[in-house]
Specification:
This protein is of the alpha+beta class.
């Protein structure tokens, strides 16, 4: 993973984007020597999204399987609001 200052990123924007796109290199952008954001290839982003979706599904299934979990009636909630 390569680190790039925000200032350098502005100067070399197209180069960084092309490198991430075609060589699959990841970049961490730094501001005041602190990491602030990453530029990653689309495949990495899609994998992160899929993992996040899977975690959400697992969390939802755990809630639904909990026998002690009480669910609110939607019509009752609407009336209270």
């Amino acid at each position: 993973m390569t680190t790039v200052s925000i200032v350098d990123m502005r100067k070399h924007f197209a180069e960084v984007i092309n490198t991430a796109t075609y060589t699959k290199e990841r970049f961490v952008l730094m501001r005041h020597n602190k990491p602030v954001v990453a530029i990653v290839p689309m495949e990495d982003y899609e994998l992160l999204e899929a993992l996040e979706d899977r975690i959400d599904i697992d969390d939802a299934m755990a809630v639904l399987r909990d026998p002690e979990r009480e669910f609110l009636d939607w019509d009752e909630v609407k009336r209270e609001l």
